[in-house]
Design goal:
Layout (H helix, E strand, L loop, with lengths): L1 E4 L2 E7 L10 E5 L9 H10 L1 H7 L10 E5 L7 E5 L10 H18 L4 E4 L11 H15 L8 E6 L2 H12 L8
Parallel strand pairs: 2-7, 3-5, 3-6, 6-7
Antiparallel strand pairs: 1-2, 4-5
Helix pairs in contact: 3-4, 4-5
């Protein structure tokens, strides 16, 4: 599913974040120490290879809401933006911290003149953020940040499984008309 929000092309697809060769950049749902871990981070480090960890270690630790950028190493993408999402019920205010992840990731990508970026559903796995609420925060933040972006033209959400895809497609379908061009 695809829509234009505030001049930005926004797609939601079901798939694997490590298999998006047409995107210049993908986003990692990282941990504070930028270590491989499980979920998205485990998958990204597995495909990228050990060079990614070497590049990550001097950038750690990061705080909830923050984003840092590295190369993609053996991933099919030139860059990875690593975001630390909030642990639901622990890092507060969790909605604002989650919004900061998306905003900081997009602004950082734009500074590097990145034109296309793929996000997973940050914090909705091991960090237990309810996905429906997370999808609203994610898509609203993309729409709100879009007018500040000069280079980013495509934002893709890559969702693991049909349920995650349907939740995001439903949220995108209900976005406020004023944001849709
Ligand atoms: N591609 C796309 N989405 C995925 C993939 C994949 N390959 N794998 C999982 N998901 P999570 P978090 C979905 O746990 O909640 C890590 O261990 C998954 O179903 O990766 O931010 C880190 O090291 C879920 O909807 O990230 C941290 O310690 C979403 O991506 C911690 O987990 C995010 O799940 C971060 O937890």
């Amino acid at each position: 599913m695809k829509r234009v929000l505030s001049g930005l092309e926004v797609e939601v697809v079901a798939g694997d974040i490590t298999r998006q060769p047409d995107l210049e950049c993908v986003v990692n749902a990282a941990n504070a120490l930028l270590l491989p871990g499980g979920g998205v981070a485990g998958a990204i480090h597995r495909v990228a290879g050990p060079g990614l960890l070497d590049e990550c270690l001097p950038l750690a630790p990061i705080r909830p809401g923050e984003a840092v950028l590295t190369g993609g190493h053996h991933l099919p993408n030139k860059y990875v933006v690593h975001c630390l999402g909030p642990i639901y019920g622990q890092d507060e205010p969790s909605d604002e911290l989650l919004a900061s992840c998306y905003q900081n990731a997009l602004k950082l990508a734009d500074q590097y003149e990145i034109t296309s970026i793929g996000f997973p559903s940050i914090s909705t796995g091991i960090f237990r953020f309810p996905m429906q609420e997370a999808s609203r925060i994610a898509l609203n933040t993309v729409a709100r940040t879009a007018p500040q972006l000069q280079f980013v033209r495509l934002v893709r959400f890559i969702l693991f499984g049909e349920t995650a895809f349907e939740i995001h497609a439903d949220t995108l379908g209900k976005m406020q008309e004023s944001w849709i061009q």
